[in-house]
Design a protein that fits this description.
141 residues, mainly beta, OB fold (Dihydrolipoamide Acetyltransferase, E2P), CheW-like_dom_sf, 3 helices
Length: 141
């Protein structure tokens, strides 16, 4: 997102999907992009860049999402792109700083180093805590 690379622990990832037939919900939080039917199941879709206030340039298009399991619920996290799976040796992960590019350190698990790149490892469970999921559920129902 933006000019940074982010990572989500693979243990939380159910699948990576192409976004289609996204249904927007009126009067929902700005980061709640809508809902989508995934094999007969309604999945809430969250625009991660909006939730984390990551600046974007140009037209915003929703193409891919990472479906994660948070608090027992499937949630689609809309991302700019999905690059690949990266394994970080434990000694290549540094503790989170107070903030990175305006993102609160409470949403960051650590900073991984891969080759000459730094990758921000985000805490999806904190970003999409129970309160947010309940509120999104109220918008859907």
């Amino acid at each position: 997102m933006g000019d940074e690379e982010y990572a989500i622990p693979i243990s939380l990832v159910d699948e990576i999907i192409k976004i289609h037939n996204l249904i927007r919900i009126p009067k929902a939080k700005t980061y709640f992009a809508g809902i989508m039917d995934i094999r007969g199941k309604v999945v809430k879709m969250v625009d991660l860049a909006v939730k984390l206030t990551v600046p974007r340039e140009g037209e915003i298009t929703y193409d891919r999402a990472i479906v994660v399991k948070v608090s027992g619920q499937s949630v689609g996290i809309i991302v700019d792109k999905v690059a690949n799976v990266v394994l970080f040796p434990p000694d290549s992960i540094n503790p989170p700083p107070p903030s990175v590019k305006g993102i609160s350190g409470r949403y960051i698990t650590g900073i991984g180093k891969k080759d000459d790149r730094f990758i921000i490892i985000i805490d999806v469970e904190k970003i999409l805590g129970t309160e947010e999921l309940t509120e999104l559920g109220n918008n859907v129902g």
